[in-house]
From TrEMBL:
Protein name as catalogued: malate dehydrogenase
Source species, domain of life: Eukaryota
Biological classification of the source: Eukaryota, Fungi, Fungi incertae sedis, Zoopagomycota, Kickxellomycotina
Keyword Oxidoreductase assigned: yes
A single cellular component GO annotation: cytoplasm
Family: Belongs to the LDH/MDH superfamily. MDH type 1 family.
Species for this entry: Coemansia erecta
Residue numbers annotated as active site: 197
Transmembrane segment boundaries: none
Residue stretches making up the Lactate/malate dehydrogenase C-terminal domain: 170-332
Residues the entry annotates as binding substrate: 104, 110, 142, 176
EC number: 1.1.1.37
Gene Ontology molecular function: L-malate dehydrogenase (NAD+) activity
Enzymatic reactions: (S)-malate + NAD(+) = oxaloacetate + NADH + H(+)
Length: 337
């Protein structure tokens, strides 16, 4: 289950443009709180050669607006009213980013979104399986711990499943963890975050950050802040939704990692994927270290041997909740017509 620290090299991060590539990227839910700034950041990325935007409403305006940004990519926006709009958005896509669905209000858990978002993700995944079965899917819609199993089951049912290509985007947890220790370290560093994307299933591995020394109190407080960082934003937005801008940044960063890997760079990331790491515990999905290449997942790396006892305990404690969410997602598709 664990790899030596030497096996793990952290990837350099930037919107590097050293290797040209052709990448059509589609955003489903493009007119929403995440969708709009995410579309902006993707339009600004010179690696993106075509941007397809889809939402049930308001997409043409978003497409016209970001379409004036002077990178050499074309932008098209479709709504549910456009004949074949979703098909046109998806055809030829290398990446499909899905932030479609409702966000939390104060007092809600991510799982409370299941009843609305499960059907949205199922139907959009079905369209992806039909129109771009080889695309990489980046699922942002919550609850990620269930929506990734949902998309997986849809692809299996359609006979086009490739576990290397379906990702739950947990990058916001990494971005938060990095920011929350930034001032202590004095520079921006990567913090691996593993597990899942909800409360105690979010596990920052501060033990893996070179030069970081924390007291037990600091470690506990920082871990809790990363696990419940989403609640901080939900509370501050006071009924108007959850994280959108930081999520757009994190999602654009993960999309860039996949495009850089497609262009031949060695990229290490962390994402919620199908893995055998916890097969013995009956768990199929876990966010862990993943090397990327042009096909998506090149190699899944186990958790480092050197993680602390405290972090090992957090992993152990996350497994029952992860299993519950995973089963709920798979059962939802099994019981859908
Ligand atoms: P939002 O309500 O602002 O936007 C959602 C958009 O989805 C809307 O424009 C809506 O019209 C669209 N939509 C709904 N059904 C659709 C469908 N069938 N097809 C296409 N588009 C559809 O919400 P938001 O703040 O952008 O959040 C979106 C989702 O992302 C939520 O579920 C939220 O919990 C999740 N989220 C995840 C993370 C993460 O770290 N993975 C972070 C933040 C938010
Ligand atoms: C987050 O972590 O900000 C998102 O999952 C949104 C939420 O509901 O907290």
């Amino acid at each position: 289950m664990f790899a030596s620290r030497n096996a793990i090299k952290l990837a350099a991060r930037s919107f590097s443009t050293s290797v040209p590539s052709q990448s059509k990227v589609a955003v489903l839910g493009a007119a929403g709180g995440i969708g709009q700034p995410l579309s902006l950041l993707l339009k600004a990325n010179p690696r993106v050669t075509e941007l397809g935007l889809y939402d049930i409403v308001n997409t043409p305006g978003v497409a016209a607006d970001v379409g004036h940004i002077n990178t050499l990519s074309n932008v098209a926006g479709y709504t549910a009213k456009d004949v074949d709009g979703l098909k046109k958005t998806l055809e030829g896509a290398e990446l499909v980013v899905i932030p479609a669905g409702v966000p939390r209000k104060p007092g809600m858990t991510r799982d409370d979104l299941f009843n609305t978002n499960a059907g949205i993700v199922r139907d959009l995944a079905q369209a992806c399986a039909e129109h771009c079965p080889n695309a990489k899917l980046l699922i942002i819609s919550n609850p990620v711990n269930s929506t990734v199993p949902i998309a997986t089951e849809v692809f299996k049912k359609a006979g086009v499943y490739d576990p290397k290509k379906i990702f739950g985007v947990t990058s916001l947890d990494l971005v938060r963890a990095s920011r929350f220790i930034g001032d202590k370290v004095g520079k921006v560093v990567d913090v691996p975050v593993v597990g899942g994307h909800a409360g105690v299933t979010i596990i920052p591995l501060f033990s893996q950050v070179e030069g970081l020394s924390l007291t037990q109190e600091e470690r506990d407080a920082l871990t809790h802040r990363v696990q419940f960082g989403g609640d901080e934003v939900v509370k501050a937005k006071d009924g108007l939704g959850s994280a959108t801008l930081s999520m757009a940044y994190a999602g654009a960063r993960f999309a860039d990692s996949l495009m850089r890997a497609s262009a031949g760079e060695d990229v290490l990331e962390w994402a919620f994927i199908r893995t055998d790491l916890f097969k013995n515990e009956g768990l199929e999905f876990f966010s862990t270290y993943v090397k990327l290449d042009k096909n998506g997942v090149k190699e899944i790396l186990p958790l480092p041997e050197s993680i602390s006892e405290y972090e090992k305990e957090l992993v152990k404690n996350a497994i029952p909740e992860l299993k519950k969410s995973e089963t709920k997602g798979s059962n939802f598709v099994a019981s859908s017509n």
